[in-house]
Amino acid sequence: MFKTKMAGIGFALAGLCLMSAAAQAQGGKPLSPAAETSVTIDGKKITVNYSAPSMRGRKIFGELEAYGRVWRTGANNATALNTEADLNISGVKVPKGTYSLFTFIDAAQWELIVNKQTGQSGLDYDKGQDLGRVKMKMSKSANPIETFKITLASTGGKKGTLTMAWENTIASVPFTVE
């Protein structure tokens, strides 16, 4: 009888722990909170909306996010690019509008993918909707970058840079407002 009662208490405590963890994930700070970066160049606003996951002790590239495949470029829903201007992203012509951004990740080289499909889950990638792909400039960070970050920055005139940084990887691509 005592063992049965203790087992019941053990199951109840385990259930409470699971419910507490679920409530914290739902009611507390999200594990991959919404983030935004924007820049105004030549009077036109360019914005990227994404979810920013953190390392939380995990090895990211090559393990959690396997090399040789398309990554959703963040977490949760597909990362969204909204531009009030026509852009030229390293040779890919991007008319003003809204797009999804994905990234083909490899140990040596990443490719930024501009995709015409919008509003989908980050796991719903359709290659047939690609507007184009561009190789990104790769570098390593001196220190680990805990939380994924995308930055848009003006580099002068009608030019800017989109940069992604997470774990020990920094990838960037230049763009021009046309």
Please describe the structure with a list of short key phrases separated by commas or semicolons.
about 15% helix; 7-stranded antiparallel sheet; about 180 residues; mainly beta; 4-stranded antiparallel sheet; globular; 11 strands; 2 domains
List the helices and strands and how they pair.
Elements: H1 2-27, E1 34-41, E2 44-51, E3 69-71, E4 79-83, E5 87-89, E6 92-94, E7 97-105, E8 111-115, E9 130-135, E10 137-156, E11 159-177
The percentage helix is 10-25%
Give the low-confidence spans.
4-25
Q: Termini distance?
A: 78 Å
Strand content: over 45%
Tally the structural domains: 2
Mean pLDDT: 88
What is the tally of beta strands?
A: 11
- Structural class call reads mainly beta
The global form is globular
The number of helical runs is 1
Fold and architecture overview:
With 178 residues, this protein is mainly beta. The protein has two domains: 1-30; 31-177, no CATH class. It has one helix at 2-27; strands at 34-41, 44-51, 69-71, 79-83, 87-89, 92-94, 97-105, 111-115, 130-135, 137-156, 159-177. Strands 1, 2, 3, 4, 7, 8 and 9 form a seven-stranded antiparallel sheet that branches. The protein has a four-stranded antiparallel sheet with strand order 6-5-11-10, with no helix packed on it. Strand 10 (137-156) and strand 11 (159-177) form a beta hairpin. The model is unreliable at 4-25 (pLDDT under 50).
